[in-house]
Write a structure and sequence with these properties.
Elements lengths: L1 H10 L21 H5 L7 E11 L2 E7 L1 H14 L14 E5 L4 H12 L5 E5 L4 E2 L5 E2 L6
Antiparallel strand pairs: 1-2, 1-4, 2-3, 5-6
């Protein structure tokens, strides 16, 4: 995640950047250790960074990969009916590197990053839990 962390530090407003670079698998916060452990059989894996996405107030790298979707599906299945509304929506994996900026700034960052972008591969190496304030919770397991 060093590449994404450097991008985030460069483009994310410092006052709002409360978390390290990450790819959110699920927003559901009441997941138990048992539910998480049911999905830990998936080892570290490759993900493809396929492009950039422009949000109204931010920019992210789009991610893809069979194992990534498998891990997400496993976590969602473990949560079942307790999934939040947000987690019931279609999964669009991404790594946000700029957010909480004006639409003008977001577009400028997007255009800058698109210039010369080529898809690449990254490795997903672990899972961490964070609360909604960006504070890390104890790591329950390694992937």
């Amino acid at each position: 995640m060093a590449f994404f962390e450097a991008q985030r530090k460069r483009y994310y407003p410092g006052h709002a950047n409360r978390m390290s670079a990450h790819l959110t698998l699920i927003y559901h916060t009441a997941i138990t250790a048992e539910q998480l452990n049911a999905c830990t059989h998936i080892p570290s894996f490759k993900i493809q960074i396929t492009g950039l996405v422009l949000f109204k107030n931010g920019v992210a790298y789009e991610a893809a990969g069979e194992e990534l979707f498998r891990l997400h599906d496993c976590l969602a299945a473990q949560c079942g009916a307790a999934l939040s509304f947000r987690d019931q929506q279609t999964f669009h994996p991404h790594i946000t590197i700029c957010n909480q900026v004006t639409p003008y700034k977001a577009k400028r960052v997007y255009e800058e990053l698109c210039n010369g972008f080529a898809p690449f591969e990254a490795t997903a190496t672990g899972i961490s839990l964070n609360n909604n304030k960006g504070e890390a919770l104890p790591l329950l397991f390694d992937v």
